[in-house]
Amino acid sequence: EPEVTQTPSHQVTQMGQEVILRCVPISNHLYFYWYRQILGQKVEFLVSFYNNEISEKSEIFDDQFSVERPDGSNFTLKIRSTKLEDSAMYFCASSLIWDGEQYFGPGTRLTVT
Amino acid sequence: AQSVAQPEDQVNVAEGNPLTVKCTYSVSGNPYLFWYVQYPNRGLQFLLKYITGDNLVKGSYGFEAEFNKSQTSFHLKKPSALVSDSALYFCAVKGNQFYFGTGTSLTVIP
Hints:
The structure holds 2 protein chains of 2 kinds.
Chain A: E1 5-7, E2 10-13, E3 19-24, E4 31-37, E5 43-50, E6 53-57, E7 65-68, E8 75-79, E9 88-95, E10 103-104, E11 108-112
Parallel strand pairs in A: 2-11
Antiparallel strand pairs in A: 1-3, 3-8, 4-5, 4-9, 5-6, 7-8, 9-10, 9-11
Chain B: E1 3-5, E2 10-14, E3 19-21, E4 24-26, E5 33-38, E6 44-50, E7 56-58, E8 64-68, E9 73-78, E10 87-94, E11 98-100, E12 104-109
Parallel strand pairs in B: 2-12
Antiparallel strand pairs in B: 1-4, 3-9, 5-6, 5-10, 7-8, 8-9, 10-11, 10-12
């Protein structure tokens, strides 16, 4: 069964550093998403991406965040200058259609020290 | 504004008993409603969705959910709980983005 993969599984970085979180969505899916989940809290939407551009973003997704689909398979989330409060689990997801079920990756745990 | 509420942080049920995990929603227009399950150290897994049609939606692993428009609810149910159902359950509504509830931790007691 196809699945969404994410690398790395755990990323430790120092405050102020840039990080890139990588995702490989399911190959025939058209919609891509990033979410974050701060430990013990709810899953929060960050951004959705379709047709090589951002379709929606939340208030969390400020100028320090960016997304890119550099080739036909990868979908990345870049955080330019990490802050302590960026520490969270980041999930990538993809779906075939706009209102379809989203398939989530296993997540990348980001720890900012 | 779209939102979902899961009023119970924790639900405990004995194995073999029916289980219900509650969700209420607030949305303008027709709601697109989803349930996801999260096992420890894993991503979310899709269980079921309601877009339109029959109010009783059947999903994965024997789960079902009942859409109730008058009560703006979308409760998750299963007739007979298994220990392996113990996990974190999230209700979600899709508007211009996905809004997830705060999650309900389900513990099935052997």
